[in-house]
Amino acid sequence: MAAPHAGPGVLGWPQAREAARRAGLRPLPALGLPLAEALGHTLAEPLTALTDLPAFDTSAMDGWAVAGPGPWRVAGRVLAGRTEVAPLDDGAAVEIATGAQLPPGATAVLRREHGRVDGTLLHACGPTPLTTGQDVRPRGQECRRGEELLPAGVPVGPAVLGLAAACGHDRLSVHRRPVVQLLVLGDELLASGVPRPGLVRDALGPLLPPWLRAAGAEVAEVRGVRDDFGLLRDALRHSGADVVVTTGGTAAGPVDFLHRALAEAGARLLVDGVAVRPGHPMLLAELPGGRHLVGLPGNPLAAVAGMVTLALPLLRARSGRGAESPAAAPAAVALPGHPADTRLLPVRRGAEGVRPLAFDGPAMLRGLARAEALAVVPPGGAAAGETVELVEAP
Ligand SMILES: Nc1nc2c(c(=O)[nH]1)N[C@H]1C(S)=C(S)[C@@H](COP(=O)(O)OP(=O)(O)OC[C@H]3O[C@@H](n4cnc5c(N)ncnc54)[C@H](O)[C@@H]3O)O[C@H]1N2
Ligand code: MOO
Q1: Atom of ligand 2 nearest to the CA of 302
Q2: Where's the MoaB/Mog domain (predicted)?
């Protein structure tokens, strides 16, 4: 239920997601970080090669570098790591290791298993004749110095770190990560132990931080906040985070103080309710100083819906990342929908398409924990064979 004040009103699901992305289109400033610290950040500039790759003609196999047609006179060896290599005369061969620099004048590499040494002469004995350039990785095969390898906006994962190192970088220019403070609201929440009458385990304290980090955020604090208006108002007023994420307190219960605390903290509501199930009371607000607050509903699956709808698009944009690559799949069976709202349904992929999982109620995580994605089911449901959009599950 919406709070009794003039606000943005309930938005459709695609509109809400787009509003969150637009709210974040002010990426955080760039900074230079050593490779070891850049993981999880986002490239602020294109990654360009500082060298040709490979930087020198390289042997792709262990064997012999040969010059011209065989048989060849064997004259010495070149191991990986040698920086000076003598030229090879026509008719000569040197033993060579994978990754070693090819001697000038060499025309091919003969693999060890395709050569036979008879006295001082090397003969080819492979299944096919040796061709010019065989098993040589020529200089610049992968890229040329100055070439753009990745655009700005790409998340820095292990492969990006490896590529950056391979082409000569010690540091990367990345966006500062958005700092997130997670406030978990509710007097009924236990931080450990077994739930008992009236008390439930906090499922979102464990679920959300790793997902937020994977989305590019720096989670500075996870704090439980009692159901007390003053505590919540002060927490919002004093937070230094770029994005405050709250759980619970979005609906109309007697201790759901979030709307009032936002009003007192001088916030402007950008999204206040979304036509999506679960999760319809989710909200997004702009706090003074260009900071944001995402209010996730307390029901755990509803909170997950709020993450994919509002928090992730906002964080992706503030991190300097592009929009999520669209994904879609056919429905293997009819997918149940809500009569008027979009539904986000935990699904698994099979040969014929995606199938819904049991235990998908707003308060449940049992289906989600086995899900490979959330299917975006349009109002009224999706027929078997119909293509549905997929968004990431945690
Ligand atoms: N009169 C109305 N009541 C409710 C409405 C409504 O529109 N009108 N909406 C329902 C929907 S839908 C949802 S979703 C919830 C949203 O509630 P809140 O965001 O205010 O969350 P709470 O009331 O604090 O908690 C709801 C539910 O979730 C449990 N919870 C809360 N936090 C956690 C946590 N960290 N880990 C596990 N479980 C949590 C809490 O114990 C409650 O059971 O409101 C409906 N009501
Ligand atoms: O948004 Mo609520 O998720 O339907 O429980």
Answers
A1: 3
A2: 181-317
Distance 316 CA to ligand 1 centre (A): 26
Is domain 11-28+177-318 in CATH 3.40.980.10, yes or no? yes
Give CATH for domain 58-137.
Answer: 2.170.190.11
Cross-strand pairs, 375: 345, 390
Find residue 294's DSSP bridge partners. Answer: 245, 284
Band of residue 8 on the pLDDT scale cut at 50, 70, 90: confident
Q: What ligand is nearest to the CA atom of residue 205?
A: 1
More confident call, 17 vs 78: 17
Q: What is the ipTM of this complex?
A: 0.97
Ligand nearest to the CA of 199: 1
What CA–CA distance (Å, rounded) separates 181 from 246? 8
- Identify the CATH number of the domain defined by range 32-52+142-175: 3.90.105.10
Ligand 2 atom 3: residue of nearest CA = 278
Cβ(379)–Cβ(338) under 8 Å? yes
For 121-137, how does the pLDDT look when each residue is reduced to its tens digit (9 = 90+)?
A: 999 999 999 999 999 99
Report the SS3 class of residue 137: strand
Residue whose Cα lies nearest atom 4 of ligand 2: it is 278
Contact criterion met (CB below 8 Å) for 345 and 304: no
Would you say the CATH fold of 327-392 matches that of 32-52+142-175? no
Per-residue pLDDT tens digits for 304-323: 999 999 999 999 999 999 88
CA distance 314 to 294: 9
Average pLDDT over residues 97-104: 96
Q: How far is the CA of 245 from the centre of ligand 1 (A)?
A: 15
- Residues linked to residue 246 through DSSP beta bridges, in sequence order: 183, 295
**Ligand 2 atom nearest to CA at 363:** 5
CATH class of 327-392: mainly beta
Residues of the chain with pLDDT > 70, as a percent, come to 98
**Could you report the per-residue pLDDT of 47-67, keeping only the tens digit for each?**
999 999 999 999 999 999 999
Average pLDDT over every residue of 252-274: 88
